[in-house]
Write a structure and sequence with these properties.
homodimer, alpha+beta, Arc Repressor Mutant, subunit A, 2 domains, three-stranded mixed sheet, two-stranded antiparallel ribbon, 5 strands, DNA-binding
Chain lengths: 146, 146
DNA sequence: GTTCCTGCAAAAGCTTTGCAGAAGA
DNA sequence: TCTTCTGCAAAGCTTTTGCAGGAAC
């Protein structure tokens, strides 16, 4: 996926985030690598092309991006926090065998009215997580009950 | 809530978990304190009545209970893992202000068929998390947009 | 010049691990 | 006796913090 850096800069500015080169790089990485990477994965990959990048900056940047809604933080993997540059409404599936996290489409315009009772709560965000076995791991295991 | 220890013992045995006193105590605590406590909260409270209890044992026990489905682990609070002894299908809401976690009822028999596309996935569990402001925090803030 | 960004090193905090002793079957 | 459970201490990791130098405006 080829992303225009200028577009990313503008997107950050629209959210009131000063678009430093490193911040743009992190945002770009998340959009180009929609695999829900951990902080360490982001750092290790970007560090190759930007040797002066520190992990602290990756942490700082992600905190800002998440705080401004430019990026989602996923609490699906009990080992690490994961980050998602795709912020449109969707759910996630984590494979208990290979650990990969998959995006799962939510029906257009779907909300949880009628399925849950949220009376009295001022809801700001919703996350729907699934776990189990992905197609590949499931077939490798011979379709036997896991 | 008064829980029969014998009942808990039988419940653990039915899941193949040897019901030592400390394991029963942890399970009982989770059922009697459905506030989604952290490991540290469980440890600190139980330690008062069972001074010989160690945090290692709390960790060990929770791992076994979660592994056997007797307890749910909740990844809703980015600081700590939380535990829930109530394993029937329900969703959770975390208040961004006070940090409390609330159980949210799911419509009886509800599943996500039709709302999400899980073709190819062998789904073993689903978690639905909401965040925002609870009724009390919302009213204290004067109902202004948070 | 002032503000904000960044990196280093250290600290903090949660969780896991190894091992030895204790408890239970 | 043999297996399992438990506690202690240490280690491992992720994440946060304090501070000083540097960049941007």
């Amino acid at each position: 996926m080829i992303i225009n850096e200028l577009e990313i800069k503008r997107g950050l500015q629209n959210r009131g985030i000063r678009p430093s080169n490193k911040r743009v790089a992190v945002m770009k990485y998340l959009i180009e690598n929609p695999v829900h990477p951990t902080v360490d994965e982001i750092y290790r990959d970007l560090h190759k092309s930007i040797p002066s990048l520190s992990k602290t900056t990756v942490y700082n940047t992600l905190k800002i991006l998440v705080g401004n809604g430019a990026v989602l933080s996923l609490l699906i993997d009990d080992k690490n926090c994961r980050y998602d540059g795709f912020t449109h409404s969707h759910a996630h599936f984590i494979c208990n065998s290979c650990g990969k996290i998959f995006d799962v489409g939510l029906k257009e315009g779907y909300n949880f009215n009628g399925t849950v009772d949220l009376k009295g709560f001022n809801v700001k965000s919703a996350h729907l997580y699934f776990s189990g076995y992905c197609e590949l791991c499931n077939s490798l295991a011979g379709n036997c009950e896991q």
